[in-house]
Amino acid sequence: MGKTSFTSVAYENLDDFVYARAVHPVTLKNGISLGGGTLYPEVNFTLPTMLITEETFDEVIRIYREIATGISERANVLGVPGFVAEIELLPPTTFHPEWGIEICKNVVDIIKENEAKNGTPGAVRITPVDIREGRDLEHMWHGRHWDNVLKTFEGSAKAGAEFLAIESVGGKDVHDEGLMYTDIGRVIFSYSSLGCPDMEKLWTEIVKIADANGVVPAGDTACGFANTSMVLADKHFIPEVFAAIDRVVAAVRTLVAVQVGAKGPSKDCGYECVYLKAITGTPIATEGRVAAVAHLSHVGNVAISLSDLWSNESIQHIRLLADWSEVCSFEQLAYDVRLMNEASKRGKETALLLRDLNADSDSPYNATAYILRPDVVLDISKKLVKVEDTYYKRAKAAAALTVEALRDGYESKKLALSEKEIKQLDKVSKAIDALPEDEQAFIADNIQNSKALRREIYDL
Amino acid sequence: MSDILATISEAIQDGDQAGTLDAVKSALGEGVAAQKILDDGLLKGMGIVGERFVAGDAFIPEVMMSANALNGATAILKEQFKAEGVTSAGKVVIATVKGDLHDIGKNLVKLMLEAGGFEVIDLGTDVPETDIIKTVKDNNADVIALSALLTTTMAEMRNVLAAIEAAGLKGKVKVLVGGAPITQTYADEIGADGTATNAASAAELAKQLVS
């Protein structure tokens, strides 16, 4: 398929923009319908401290089976409406696609056996790690790394994974370089000239694999990009306003997956995906307070306001007092989901009240939390889709619109920002204004001055 | 003399690369020793920037600009350093271990080490232990700094420690380990010389280990 250009938003009315409801729900054969009115939990997990080698692989499989069994049993006990288990593969299990596929098959088998026996619908999302990094990477779009990523998708789809997802990394090195200097121009270049074209190529292939195997091309995330910003800002290494601007610009990149055929749910750690939901109407996975087991954030509550699939990000498989860690984490998700679904059952007004309580309880205290507010998301999205659909123009506009929204929030006393942050906001604003209209001049300047860019791997 | 050294320190604090170079050249013209320029001008300024960063009064980009100004200045002082026999605070080989592609934490540690006067050889990410050992031997390094973000790659640090022992380098080179899943208990268990929870503390620890 070609590339869809979104020139209008999917929700004109803010009251229709709410958790568990998407304009284009994704429904599986077993009845799980994301965005169809019910919020579902998505549990993610990772191995304990161990090496993954041929010698340890039997133990790896044993642990994954133990994890899938524990989650399935708890899902039955708690009577969840259904659940998604995400397998975020690790580098060795993507460098060796047969390992990743074997893990996927084992987890799918247990979840589907449980579904057949106990009636709890379950599905697996497979997320190969994007291994297209490092010193021996030949090229972004061909060679060993590229082939292994696609083989892992193909084999996992055949093994029963129903959602295909990835945290792709095209442009990440250059984005890192931009972050170290809070250089908004370099950050925009990393998205518009590297990340977006990479997304087009990668997701076109993922969609083909999904279509050929009757599974769902789900979505991507700017984890290596805007989440790095968010974590650095949390440690006061970079300004929080910069992380918020980066987040919205990241949406232009993450959106490309949907533009070339992804259907949702987007990846949980892509906080920018609320903008995807606004623009495309596809369902989204999000993570917040329960993801504190993986990383800290300022968006624990607001992140559930628009969620269609509520995730814990990831938890290391260790024994806790109650049970295995992933079972405990899953239970926390299940209770959040129960509460949100109960609010939905009581009617739209109650659902909107709960949406807004979650948003309002976070948004005054942090710039990223503020730009995840449903009203702010919809407002920025409406303006963004009016901008000519080139990656550069939309990325630049996303940055400028976020600056404007943050200023409005600060001036109307809806968002508290320190004097230091306001100075940084002014600084970034000036830098955005100074970016050239001429995209070719912008690209040429970045190619010349970026030390992190490896032109040859992007055919630049 | 103190005026020109103060000017160098201030230029470093401002991240003013051209101003730092001009002031260093002036100092050399006045006959100030390279060691003095380094200690009482460049590193003094960098130390203040580092303190501001630790206190939350400066962001990384400001530290980066200062570090770039420092590196620019030390490049033109190289010949003087040789002539005066000036050495760096120590040589550090830094890498993210095999199987792990995360680099931003490592880069922050590198930045703080350079700010602390260390010469840092950065091997990048996904680095096999053989490359680490070879680089340490070739450069006679004082410290190895290893980074890992994943629970499944932190175990690779143990292999690097074993390779250090097998190469006869144990005790001759200090090993720092770091990354989100790394604890002091783990560092002790694998025989590392230390760990730190942030980049600034890692640089401080490196200083203690080589002193």
CATH architecture of chain A: Alpha-Beta Barrel
**Number of strand elements of chain A:** 9
Q: Might you state the CATH topology name of the largest domain in chain B?
A: Rossmann fold
Helix and strand sequence of chain A: EEEHEHHEHEHHEHHHEEHHHHHHH
CATH homology-level superfamily of the largest domain in chain B: Cobalamin-binding domain
> Order of strands across the widest beta sheet of chain B?
2-1-3-4-5
Question: How would you briefly describe this protein structure?
Answer:
Chain A is α/β, with parallel strands linked by helices. In chain A, 53% of the residues lie in helices and 9% in strands.
Characteristics of this structure?
heterodimer; A: 460 residues; alpha/beta; seven-stranded parallel beta sheet; two-stranded antiparallel sheet; 16 helices; 9% strand; B: 211 residues; Methyltransferase, Methionine Synthase (B12-binding Domains), Chain A, domain 1; 5 strands; 10% strand
Describe the structure.
The complex is a heterodimer of chains A (460) and B (211). Chain A is α/β, with parallel strands linked by helices and 460 residues long. Chain A has one domain: TIM Barrel. Chain A contains 16 helices and 9 strands. In chain B, helix 5 links the parallel strand 1 and strand 2. Chain B is globular, with a radius of gyration of 18 Å. Chain B is α/β, with parallel strands linked by helices and 211 residues long. Classes of the chains: A alpha/beta (460), B alpha/beta (211).
SSE inventory with pairings:
The complex is a heterodimer of chains A (460) and B (211).
Chain A: E1 21-27, E2 33-36, E3 40-44, H1 57-78, E4 83-88, H2 91-95, H3 97-118, E5 122-127, H4 144-158, E6 163-165, H5 172-180, H6 184-213, E7 216-219, H7 223-234, H8 240-259, H9 273-280, E8 285-287, E9 309-311, H10 325-345, H11 348-362, H12 367-371, H13 374-384, H14 391-411, H15 419-433, H16 439-449
Parallel strand pairs in A: 3-4, 3-9, 4-5, 5-6, 6-7, 8-9
Antiparallel strand pairs in A: 1-2
Helix pairs in contact in A: 1-3, 1-10, 3-4, 4-6, 5-6, 5-7, 6-8, 6-14, 7-8, 8-9, 8-14, 9-13, 10-11, 13-14, 14-15
Chain B: H1 2-13, H2 17-29, H3 34-54, H4 60-84, E1 91-96, H5 104-115, E2 119-122, H6 129-139, E3 143-147, H7 156-166, E4 174-178, H8 184-190, E5 194-195, H9 199-210
Parallel strand pairs in B: 1-2, 1-3, 3-4, 4-5
